[in-house]
Amino acid sequence: MAKATEIESIDGFEMGKPYYCIECKRNHTKGKIYREHISFAQSETPNKQDIPDEDIESNDDEFDDDVELTESFEEFKIDENDIEIENEIDDNKDIENETLPNNKGSLQESINEVKKLPGVGEATLNKLIKAGFSSLESIAFTPPSIIQDESGLGDKTTAKLIKACMEKLNIGFKSAEDVWEHRKNIARITTGSQELDDLLGGGVETGSLIEFFGEFRTGKTQIMHQLCVNVQLPLEKGGIEGKALYIDTEGTFRPERIIQMAEGLDLDHNKILKNIIFGRAYNSDHQVILIKEAANLIKEQNIKLIVVDSLIGHFRSEYIGRGTLANRQQLINSHLHDLLRLCDIYTDLAIVVTNQVQAKPDVFYGNPLQAAGGNVVAHGSTIRIFLRKGKGEQRIAKIVDAPHLPEGEAIFSITENGISD
Ligand code: ADP
Ligand code: MG
């Protein structure tokens, strides 16, 4: 299947020239969106009188497509003004869930660290920040080829930068005691079910990528919603006082469910909704771009949970047939590594993804249902949980793969108030 990004030219239009995009109703001059929207190109910018007034958006300025990436999120952010504040009296004094703080200060601090690196001038710094490399960690943990591609810096500069960052961060061998010291203090988010938390070793842990897979209606999306609420809880209630970023590829995010779950915990749903940043990914390219853009929001917005529901649905439907399999697996692999890198960089961030299952007709013993995406996804996730239906509202979770957890099962329920035992 031809993808928009692969189109090199269209009739009567020369690549590289600015064009008027009939989809976005404005000019594209450069960047990713330029390539992706080439099929919407109208080679001549229309006369302004041909466009209805409300569609004209400052086309006079040179349009910077980098800004557009941020807008992808902004567009879907729940508008604070749309939410009516029912009454000003705060009746959940026990849970001090004021709108969670942004961390603009600490973002500036980490940018200052990058600025201090040898050889980093204003121009290099700008390129790095634009490409999402605004901390020492993000530079140290990213392969040089990716930094080069995304920032446009040369290979020597990139190599020097990475080396400097690794030295500053003291990355290298450390003792198992240090590793233990770190793991002991890992924060966890409660799922709402004690049994499921126990199965996970105390809840969804930060610094890991956790995959929930199972058939349709087994509760994957419900768990994702619940975690977006629970991540905001104070520590003593099983949360980590952070915001959530939700990437929805299937169109199944429902604020109504968030409201029900928040009310189930006696929380003010307006505040809970405000702290969930939502992005709808319309295709696999868009999904990849949203995750790359997310890197910039994590520190600034104090995001402690990223949800991708579902991880590979788009990839599966866009790359159909045997001939495309290698290409598809490679793209999924690179997307997964973008996610895993975020776990390395931001150690107090948890990433949860959902995955569909596909029937494996050649399996005669054991479970014939396998997570989609094959080995690529299996090796990328730190912890994998298989979900299946039980009686009524009951669901059964089973650990399939985890480096440190025993095999086991947990039974939980999906109720109107969310996930519970
Ligand atoms: P999937 O694994 O396909 O993502 P979902 O997470 O969407 O599945 O789970 C759907 C199930 O969640 C439904 O079958 C229903 O049992 C339960 N559910 C959804 N909304 C509610 C609700 N408001 N009250 C009770 N149960 C609900
Ligand atoms: Mg779902």
Provide a brief overview of the structure:
The chain has 421 residues and is an alpha/beta fold.
Overall description:
It is a single chain. A hairpin with a 7-residue loop joins strand 14 and strand 15 (409-415). The protein has helices at 32-36, 65-76, 104-115, 122-130, 136-140, 144-151, 155-169, 176-184, 194-199, 220-230, 255-264, 269-274, 284-301, 313-318, 325-345, 374-380; strands at 19-21, 26-28, 41-42, 188-189, 204-205, 209-214, 243-248, 276-280, 303-309, 350-355, 357-359, 369-371, 383-389, 394-401, 409-415, 418-420. It has a 9-stranded mixed sheet, sandwiched between helices. A 3-stranded antiparallel sheet has the order 2-1-3, with no helix packed on it. The protein is globular, with a radius of gyration of 23 Å. With 421 residues, the protein is an alpha/beta fold. Helices cover 38% and strands 17% of the residues. The structure holds adenosine-5'-diphosphate (ADP) and magnesium ion. Magnesium ion is lined by residues 220-221, 250, 252, 309.
